[in-house]
Amino acid sequence: MVLFLGLLLVLICSSQSALAQCSICTKTASQLGEGPGKALNSAIIYLAFTPLAIMGYIGWRWWKNEKEQYND
């Protein structure tokens, strides 16, 4: 499970074609230039991944516990 989450994190952070910016962030990134704009985009993806990973883990644990209850 940890290996899967690590691989998923690497794939998400290394994605160059992901557009995770709202219109305000896009305008700000275009004013900053190429390098800082890419860094801003990566930071947005990184910050969005953490709560999604936590919710996914909680959902997986809930599903696993429910599955065990019905198998007993």
Helical segment count: 3
Sheet with the most strands, sense and barrel status:
none
Poorly predicted segments: none
- The class by helix and strand makeup works out as mainly alpha
Coarse morphology: elongated
The average pLDDT is 79
Distance between the termini: 24 Å
Overall helicity: over 70%
Element string (H = helix, E = strand): HHH
Radius of gyration: 17 Å
How would you sum up this structure in a few lines?
This protein has 72 residues and is mainly alpha-helical. The protein has helices at 2-14, 23-32, 34-71.
Walk me through what this model shows.
With 72 residues, the protein is mainly α. α1 packs antiparallel against α3 (34-71). The radius of gyration is 17 Å and the shape is elongated. The longest helix is centred in the C-terminal third of the chain and has 38 residues, at 34-71. It has 3 helices and no strands.
Spell out the blueprint of helices and strands.
Layout lengths: L1 H13 L8 H10 L1 H38 L1
Helix pairs in contact: 1-3, 2-3
Brief descriptors of the model:
single chain, 72 residues, 85% helix, mainly alpha
